TrEMBL record:
Pfam families: Sulfotransfer_2. Transmembrane segments: none annotated. One of its GO terms (biological process) is heparan sulfate proteoglycan biosynthetic process. This is Heparan sulfate 2-O-sulfotransferase 1. It is found in: Golgi apparatus membrane. InterPro entries: Heparan_SO4_2-O-STrfase, P-loop_NTPase, Sulfotransferase. GO terms for molecular function: heparan sulfate 2-sulfotransferase activity; heparan sulfate sulfotransferase activity. Signal peptide: none annotated. GO terms for cellular component: Golgi membrane. The keyword Membrane applies.
Length: 354
């Protein structure tokens, strides 16, 4: 080859080198195309294998999957005046269609803290009451750690929280005027015509900053420190539980997003929930009567309190976490919300099936 190149004129040598370079580039392009085709073929084979596994699984293991799903328990330890009744009505509307039980946890005097013996009884009910499974429990009860009682399969916790001042204002007027859900029911403070602003101005107990301390202890749990107003430990414990013990925590202001994400994550319970929320006549229509928005002065006065700062810190923490989860699950287009499509699949599954 070297001798032949020496015998060739320089012009032909240059042409030969150019032809060789073109041939190499063409060969590299063909190799790259083959690699891409091989990759696509591997993905197609992987998808086919996954579909085949899923098909066999649906034929052979469908009863096992149903048994696993039918053993599921969801607990919604609802915070008062966070749209909790509105959301719970969705669960009641769907229980017949989706074949699960809904149980209200009704504590004496709406005390959110259970006695030790009641905690044990509740844990046993949730764990062993097979006739009620799958089950959706709801009630104004603070978080309860099931692992303390030796339970291996914990229930799924969900919740909704609200801007702390808006929640307090709603609760203040609810105690005096009720709502449109049960308008004839006499409320504890019925007859008291004092507005929230007048209460704040007079330094009343029903609108005191201490009344803001509720969402933190509900998430903190049954420890004594949780209910010590203004406890930094309680705030940090509430944050820890929200991230580690709750599957999803929504906010009242974005309830539709919360419902949509639950339907996608827990269709066993919430299939059809989004459509029901949008079109239902009673599921999300509960409103506090005679509610007057507070003035900027009243809000500013409450915001001077360290209790508000801590409750607001917890609310902002929950809101940021919810928006982070939502950003990876939901998108908005033309004013409508849509779930994002599945963006993962399985490949390189070994050993190969026969």
């Amino acid at each position: 080859m070297g001798l032949l190149r020496l015998m060739m004129p320089p012009k032909f040598q240059l042409l030969a080198l150019l032809a060789f370079a073109i041939a190499m580039i063409f060969l590299e392009n063909q190799i790259q195309k083959l690699e891409e085709s091989r990759g696509k073929l591997e993905q197609a084979i992987a998808r086919h294998e996954v579909r085949e596994i899923e098909r066999r699984h649906s034929q052979v293991g469908v009863k096992e999957v149903q048994l696993e799903e039918d053993d599921t328990v969801v607990i919604y330890n609802r915070v008062p005046k966070t749209a909790s009744t509105s959301f719970t009505n969705i669960a009641y509307d769907l229980c017949n269609k989706n074949h699960y039980h809904v149980l209200h946890i009704n504590t004496s005097k709406n005390n959110p803290v259970m006695s030790l013996q009641d905690q044990v009884r509740f844990v046993k009910n949730v764990t062993l009451w097979k006739e009620m499974k799958p089950a959706f429990y709801h009630g104004h009860v603070s978080f309860l750690d099931f692992t303390k009682f030796g339970v291996k399969k914990k229930p799924i916790y969900i919740n909704v929280i609200r801007d702390p001042i808006e929640r307090l204002v709603s609760y203040y007027y609810f105690l005096r005027f009720g709502d449109d859900y049960r308008p004839g029911l006499r409320r504890r403070k019925q007859g008291d015509k004092k507005t929230f602003d007048e209460c704040v101005s007079a330094g009343g107990s029903d609108c005191a900053p201490e009344k803001l301390w509720l969402q933190i202890p509900f998430f903190c749990g049954h420890y004594s420190e949780c209910w010590n107003i203004g406890s930094r430990w309680a705030l940090e414990q509430a944050k820890y539980n929200l991230v580690n013990e709750y599957m999803l925590v929504g906010v009242t202001e974005e309830l539709e997003d919360f419902v949509m994400m639950l339907e996608a994550a827990l269709p066993r319970f919430f299939k059809g929930a989004t459509e029901l929320y949008k079109t239902g006549k009673r599921s999300h229509l509960r409103k506090t009567s005679e509610k007057k928005p507070p003035t900027k002065e009243s809000i500013a006065r409450l915001q001077q309190s360290n209790i508000w700062k801590m409750e607001n810190e917890f609310y902002e923490f929950a809101l940021e976490q919810f928006q982070y989860v939502r950003a990876h699950a939901v998108r908005e287009k033309d004013g409508e919300l849509y779930l994002l499509t599945q963006n993962f699949f399985y490949e390189k599954i070994y050993p190969k099936s026969n």
